[in-house]
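Researcher: Please predict.
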Amino acid sequence: MFASQAVKNLADLSLDLSDPVDWQTGSLRTIHYHLDITAVATEPVSGLFAIGTARGSIYVYGSPGVEARIKITEPASLRIKFLQFAALAFKLVCVDEHDRLHVWDLNSPGKPKLQRITGFGQSVNAIVTSPSHTHAFVALADGEIKTYDLLCSRISPYAIPNQWRLYDKKSLASGLSISGAPGSDVIIDMAIHPRDLNLLFVAYEGGVLVSDLKEQNTVRAFELILPPGAPGGSGFHAKDLLLPRRLQATALALHPSGHLLAVGYADGTIGFWSLEDEDKPLALRTLDSVGDEDLSAVDTVKLDAVLSSPQDHPDEPPREPIFKLAWSGFPNSSDPRGGDTVLTVLGGMTIDSSPGLTALLFPLLNPPAPPTPASPNATGVAPPLHPSIRTAIRQSLIVKDVYNYTTASPVQDFLLFPRSSPHFAGHYDPSTILVVSDSEVPEVRTSEAFEFPPPTFLGSPESPSAPGRPSTSQAAAGEDAGPDDTLAKELAMTLQSMSMSDEPRLARLPPYLWTVLGERLVKVDKQTYENIVRDKLVPVDGEVRFPVKGGVAWSEDFEGIMKLIKLQPHRILVTHLQDLSIRFLDVSPHLLVSTGPESPLTSSFPSLIPRLAIELGPLLIDHSLGLSHIPAGSGEYDPRLSKERVEEVHFATESLECVAVLRSGAVILHRLDVPAEEGAFGQKSLQDEELVSLSHLRARAGLRYSPVFGIKAHKTRGVVTACALSDVGFLAIAYASGSLLVVDLRGPRVLLRHEPNSHGGSGLLHRHSEPEPFLSLTWTCCSISSDPVVRLRLICSATSGATSVFSLAHNPPSAWSVVQPSVTTEVPARPIPGGSFVLDAKTGAKCGADRRGLAVVLQPDDASDAAKKYVFVAAGAKGVRCTLNVNGERIAKVDWGSKVGAVQHVEVIERADSCALVAFTSLGNALIYSLPHLEHIHTLQLPALGSSDPPSTEDSGDFTAHTTFPVPAGSSLHPLLNTDLHTLFSHRRTGPYVPPLVDLAFGRGTVPAQPQPVSLGPPSLVGSVLGYIGAFGGASAGEQIDTLLAGPDRPVPPPPPKRPDVRQGGRGGPGGDASASSSSQASVSAAAADMSSGVADLYSRLGNALAERGEMLGDLQQSMDSLEQGSKSMMEQAKRLAAQQGMKSWFGF
């Protein structure tokens, strides 16, 4: 085929990109989404937050930019079973799937340092640490408890044998117990007394034992044996109702005063015990118990009624076991015993209940002083609990209020975030609760976070005032509205009333806890970016901050490339989540600017833009809007339970409008910063039946996006196959039926309804008898060969390659219409979505439907327009074609070939006043072609993308690829596991994206003092604070416990290294006024370090000698143990041989 002179005269648009050396692919940063969470932990003193996953990774998060990743190796990808912070030593402790204990030091700048990996030879059932000493208690499968020294990184000699076996034998011998089920001596939980470190509570399946560490004995045993006829959690229809039965313990929590404990059981009940009375529980209740009900007592009246007429008393549904308990106190009382408390319960619900967590509010514990005994107790044993005190304590266990944190799926775990104190098992004065739940995909965990406690418990906080909230005058004006607007106003008030409700506010989850289903990378100019991120920190109604902080992060700019970041464009990642929300993430490289410790990072990467959140769930409540298939009368709508999904999100980078395409076929448009007066007069009536106005529905105060209108789902049209949003106020939607809608957003109104039977004909392009959908829609402002006038045009390509070009004409002053008939042309078959571009044949600039193009359309220059030429690039499954002026002469054509794999996505890359076509294939290649002649320049081997889905690109050469979580075949949910940010031009680009250096200990305060014992009675009672359980010696200090557990041969722990002031970068001289407090803190730390260094120098030789002595004694002990073990082995072998000889002689062999 011979090219015309016009084609030959076309300039090469790829001159500056024709050298293969210019193309260097590289990976920039990976964004992780944690969907396989198995353990979570927080450290309240520093504010750090840690996540353990099923794939052997641990992530530690803190202040902006602070992130540390730790991987379990040898072998890799082991599930994290337990994860805890050791507050006093500031270490991170975990137990992996192979029951190995890992300890990392967090004190030094840089990545956490692995200190030791220790195995125990058997399964680890539980682990507990204290913020007041440096030992960890490790419960093993055989019921033994080992102690681990976190400072010396060794197993301490102190151990607690299986106490339950000893207790069970003793109880059975005395007739005070019943034979336990197999496994009753298995440890399921442990807790340290909140006010006496000497007491360790160990929850076995058979009950709870309290161990005195100093005396090395059991001082209390809480074993619940129901008498015959007591219903327990199984009710009066239990088969063994008339038999005594021991309940299996499953969870444990201690009251902040230290005088009460709550024990969860397998039948869904919670037993409340007094530490001073082990004989009988104070009460046994379920989550549904009312008043002072006690299910451990026999109600003879009800028992006789059920046994006499069981048909009149239906069975109660079974209950879940109690899986986890947390008892929280608050600084809400001057009484040292504390005020109201909240018990958080995981489990215990009936199987027909909605999944979630239950929070129980209890009144303060204030029993009166006991009566004066007739004779003093001289034995040193605590007197039995007086009946009046017992009654008063039972009254303090009557639930004042209940709140259920409902979730979409069963809850697997929860974590409370204390405001500052690490004591009381990390449950004191929490502000937020994180809930980790199952999902419809096996092994996928979803995360939610809420304000804690619920506002109804401790008073509802005042919601922040924000523009857009209906005032009193607006509410009064609404009373005069007609009946037609009643439903609309109720919906609007429902959305606005979230801030005034008693429901806990949501905590704004960081991106790494999201369940992301899709994303789109877009590039925006500086002015648009500044508009997007302005007022970023303004509060959003109904949300609270997620309480993660701590540490500092910075980058080293050794190559001096940070100054080049300002030349990079700003980029935004538009994501859509499982909860039917759309979130915007700032992934601009400008967030990474840091030149050292003196200028740390001030923002996370990616950085959430919270005010740009779009929530689609509330718009689906009203079935009359036609945006969902929810039947009428289906009750309250929960987007977490919906099968509806966001399939696509389209974002206009100039107008900043956002379109969401739903799985049902509905399409919803949101607009930024809509004036508050729009929609104030109720729902607007639209003339087109396909459209429904949403402008009367306001988003939460603080959110900048507001719904404008929706296109209803329609069964005849089917699902959406293509969507195109212009920057000049037009939207095009194509459907599986072959229908096409063109909407003018100014009305909104429908400009074109193109049905599949309307383009039937006998021409070559309309030879298909069955309607075929459009797969590619492209808005442009250009002229075409058959019409030299520059117009706003829509290019629609069908499956076969048949393409229709619709032109829009402007009718002053503001009306638009579609010019009929459309112009037809041909493109490669099976066009790639987003794979059509119209370029200026002289400059290579994209000719989109933007402000610049619209200005040309509205103010035409006939002479200039007639001389201007355009290149139409259209890519399909088999090849790509360039055409002059859309429907003119073909410029070039290229077939992909079969060896490169399937082409998934194409993009026109612009760089250095040149452009080139890049095709991304399924085999991980990028094919680069010149424009407009499609000459092959280079083939790039891309980094492993981890997914078969097409990447998301922007025209400067950066793109994202993602890895989806492995899901079963046929699953409708495909959440993202991580997002990888790549570039096609990695030269001098990758440096700023390298993970920053971190100092997790920066700015960390000191651990508060250990809480002291408080009396059970009034604090004014003389001599009432004498410790617990008759221990008149008082509570033990952390140093005493460390000495007790470590033994006399404990090596001298090395002194903590002198910490460098990372913020000052080692510079001398006084700091500025702005850093006075940090400088003061640094000087105090330096002084303390200098003082301690003298002592360390003085005792250094002594410490070394003691350490050597300890090592020698340890080696000697090991030798003695080895000899002893060898002797025992020889003795056992001799006995076995003797027994064998005896057997032979017995049987005559």
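Model: Residues 466 and 701 are 6 Å apart (CA to CA).
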